[in-house]
């Protein structure tokens, strides 16, 4: 059996300037540019293996061990674009095998539970598109390829780069200039860390696609966000990253998360993603920054109640004195720290912080959080020797 | 002892187009016009008695049986303006007693617990200003007097009228054109009813004065609200009242509440007045309207978690099938309905509603609500024979 293989990993990214609103639903063209930080793949990544060969009879997708449909228009758009680029390559070199005409097997696995409510579609579509681009040996740049990932899931385009990434909204109606670009590589500002507080949600949230369409249609305040607020913030945030201006980056991140959720609330009927636990985490972050009279933490919330806290490595002990004290009953801390190190955070709180504290730590807040994920800025998609497909049969292992 | 007396009651009003933001803090001049419905005084009112006489030695204020300071600049501004108008009257007619030079005793009582978190300052300042204006026999119109009440508490100016009231923001820097006017009297649209769900709050909210100042200073979306959203809505809502267009009035009311809370969330640090219970009430209202495929209820939230539900008398049975079913464990229903009538709401739900319901009534939602207050549109300040001051001594009874 003649088979060709490729595998890649792709990261999760968490926006610091939010994508909310499509100007074209089919092409996933956004109403505003956005910015994100790519997270380390040790903690959160999708691994995707693909194979093709003349004897495969169907396109097949297996996600986390379960066969899934490839019929969605979004997935079909990605496959069509990739095969088209491969076709152009084959047209220019007759010796190349006709991958563009053969079926594909795609096998994909996350190293984190999808149940955690973390947007896995970005990493998933990024991995799918990069793996096939690699299999097809496409010569296009990552920014070019990001336009294909964008059609799968808007924010997926940002997962094609590591470090600090901008998705330029573009102006063209065909989406040809709506792509991801690197603002700065991970190595430019390697001390950016993230603590994700997974907040227990009682109900399913409004899906982001229908939610953002309703916002575009009904929110008056959204118009101002798109017209004035985000374009200004986009330039300011890129500058703050290039200059490693943490206080500015942090403030813009928090403000933009609030602005996004404000337009959700201004949607009719209103959309609520944050719950009372989310709000208490926001209050705690502002109290922590006020306590130190210094910005040590920046929160951001996607279309769900989970809090992503960004902070610099140098401020970890300051932040963790508070958040380990508050959330030590949940799991996740042990993945990065020994019990001795964790005890130090408590000690720091008890000996240094507690005496000057003018507010009480809310011990019940812990009950609204199910898990903490500790991670940091990371690289873009990585080649891997791991293959999820049996090289003899072309079937999932 | 020579003493002169006057007493009045004044109502609570609940805005349907929200006042949020001052352009002048000392004069309580708003950044936008607002609209409210005045509520019936059987359910919610302040009763204020005032007296003056040459032998009184101090200005004195007794609120709900407790002596309070009159030193606040806001109260002093009100007293100064009222004495100035009285002075002008005395100057034009030398026979008039010199009330403007004598001290005042002010005694005030609410017929509802302040603990309920219902803005009592509007009714309080309206009653204070109207009682003194009456004592002083001031010839000015209610709109003129409303400018004085406005200096005490912005929204107090709207409590000088019954029915449907607009507070025109005005343009002058001295506030001379920032006053309340009647949009329509109670009798124009007498079927407007209100159910107030008093939501249990665990913490004290951000005071509205400092909250709105922070919004003006930090929210980008607030600029759009003030510049474009509210001016448009102000005209639309007045029209909806004049035409008794309930679906439009209801939609504008809900949207404006959401818009106001969205700008609070866009404030930095963000301000949260609604909690998870408030949000669930919002969702329930939209579900109720969707169920009937007709607008039967409109929610609005002030600077706190309490929900005010407006509805038309003719839709009461439709609304109460849901809200009495959901909140029947809390007190307040018995003030307006017999147990037989209440049983009818349950029966209506069980026999007519339940079979077509595509969502579940959340029985836990009841736990977030402590009380229901049932009321309706009402008249403005009313003269009363009741006097809270001993006519012999000039002291509180």
From TrEMBL, chains A, B:
Residues 10-179 form the Diphosphomevalonate decarboxylase-like N-terminal domain. It catalyses: (R)-5-diphosphomevalonate + ATP = isopentenyl diphosphate + ADP + phosphate + CO2. Pathway: Isoprenoid biosynthesis; isopentenyl diphosphate biosynthesis via mevalonate pathway; isopentenyl diphosphate from (R)-mevalonate: step 3/3. Coiled coil: none annotated. It is an enzyme of class 4 (lyase). The keyword Lyase applies. Its EC number is 4.1.1.33. Residues 195-382 form the Mvd1 C-terminal domain. GO terms for molecular function: ATP binding; diphosphomevalonate decarboxylase activity. The keyword Plastid does not apply. Keywords: ATP-binding, Lipid biosynthesis, Lipid metabolism, Lyase, Nucleotide-binding, Steroid biosynthesis, Steroid metabolism, Sterol biosynthesis, Sterol metabolism. It holds the Pfam family MVD-like_N. One of its GO terms (biological process) is ergosterol biosynthetic process. GO terms for cellular component: cytosol. It comes from the Eukaryota. Belongs to the diphosphomevalonate decarboxylase family. PANTHER family: DIPHOSPHOMEVALONATE DECARBOXYLASE. This is Diphosphomevalonate decarboxylase. It comes from Torulaspora delbrueckii (Yeast). The gene is TDEL0A07770.
